[in-house]
Amino acid sequence: MEYVSRERVRPLAAVLSVVSLAIVFAAAGGRVPQSVVPRAPGWVLTTIPHVNVAISATAIFTITIGWRAIRRGDVERHRLAMLASFALFAAFLTLYLYRLVATGGPQPFPGPDPVYQFVYLPILAVHILLAVVCIPFLYYALLLAFAYPIEGLRRTSHARVGRIAAGLWLISFSLGIVVYGLLHAAY
Length: 187
Description:
Blueprint: H1 9-28, H2 42-71, H3 75-103, H4 113-147, H5 150-153, H6 158-186
Helix pairs in contact: 1-4, 2-3, 2-6, 4-6
């Protein structure tokens, strides 16, 4: 069943990517006023990073399951795992952006300056870069999956783009867990 017009996959992926990244950069850049998000108790805001690290670990698991499933030819398991991964990613991003806007910006690094400059910032930069780069790949692979039946999907770039997206996704989620560890466990 075709849910997305095949001719519109590329432009729709581009539009979704631009809109998504605009929202992320607006929130990260302080362009979204705190008044647009509902107020939450302090305990909710302090719990979000812990929930997000659990979401990240679960997403690593579901991406890995999806990757292994398709290598074994289990298309249905792959589909379910990747849809779950995308839902986890959306939940992570929603919670992260909510906390970012509600608290007025990113959490400051509590550790020593050399660790901040030579460990934390490079890891954070790669994490953010990969997260940004993977967005168009994710949308494109997902939209291709909705636009073609399974038999027709093999004639598209879904597998190639999906491998790139999954690889970027796995590394980004993994580095996000490292960032969490530096912010909440190490210091």
